[in-house]
Amino acid sequence: MDVHVVSKTDNNTHATFSLPTPTSPLAGPSSLRIRPSLLSLTSNNLTYALLGNQLKWWDAYPVPSNAPTPYNDASAWGIVPAWGFGTVLESTIESIAPGTKLWGYWPASGHVVDLALKHEPDEPSTHWIEVSPHRQTLLALYNRYLISTSDDETRHAWEASVRPVWQCAYVLSAYVFTPDPASNPAIHPYPGIPSVKETWTSADADLSRAVVISLAASSKTARAVAHNFTLRPTSGGPLGLLQVTSAPGPIQSAATALKPHFATRAVDYTSLDTEEVAQWIAALKPAKILVIDFGSRDGGFEAAHKLVSQDEVLAKAEFVTVNIGYQQKVYTMSDVGAALASAAEHSKIQFNTSPVIEAILPVQGATKLFAGLEKAWDHWLENREAAAPDLQLVWGEGVVGEKGIEGAWTRLTRGEVKPEEALVFRI
Predict the structure, then answer these.
(1) Which domain of life is it from (predicted)?
(2) Domain range enclosing 280
């Protein structure tokens, strides 16, 4: 089994090694032994490494105790998790047979892992929750596994590479900025965490008189938000969506193909703080300007802030910023400090998918929440070529080498993965 590990102190440094396949029996009556079989890597994996200690992502799959020196030092080395599919090898759960494929959170590696899964009676029949003690430090989203009902490898590839961020976009549009608070309550972008907005009201969620500025609009999360906005009723807004990206052509093509009920425009970063763009926004007469930063290039947010604050008309609108992603690069502690300082200075609100979903569940119930999500996800799959015309699956093989997880991690740390690439790996 090939294992990929990353230095916890310098995420540029990584290595691979091999271990024998475990032969010990499964631990209990709710246990599965699973081999990751199809994984995806995105910029999010860099975030899992960057914040692995704070958000306990390193706890998901500790480095096996029989790893060779120096990789058996858990304080120095970790396994970065990744989204995708695992194939069940052994099972003590009657309803999950060997050969079953599960979608969820796996090691970005090739070694076999054991899970302890439980099905809650109020959950959809395909949803199972990981209950191992060492996993309870994780946010709940990362302990949710779904049984696949399809054998379509291409569908699985899109589910591995896009669905994780797409579900973020779904709950952002349907609940955080709900167009129908009577049916879907307004949920804070990061429930339970101190924020510049301690409460989140229907007025905070209202986009009916808002223009949204999407920074890093070519990112998969931003593309998913744009798609979910097109599924909103006209009365729910927004008035307009300004998408800022280094490659505006495909983004504008998608906006046109999806036929949104709101005005759209895609511009590059150099055009963001121009008078022409300010006039485009002002013509829509917004009462609110929402900036969603999906990990814009350096200076991107500052240009958006300048655009609004220095225009006599736009400066009168309510200005709100929500942070969702990071750039595709390895951040230093200096970078993190600068980001935190900017967040405090500009009252930026952090978003996190997992606590949003956990806040929705007791109000809506799992059946309603996930039925709505599945319906909208199927819409994206059916309209993928319109929603993301340039997005392409880029296949890799295995863990070791340039074509595997190892080579892709190097590309990610160097910022070399293009926005239109969806990296997927047969393990």
Answers:
(1) Eukaryota
(2) 165-355
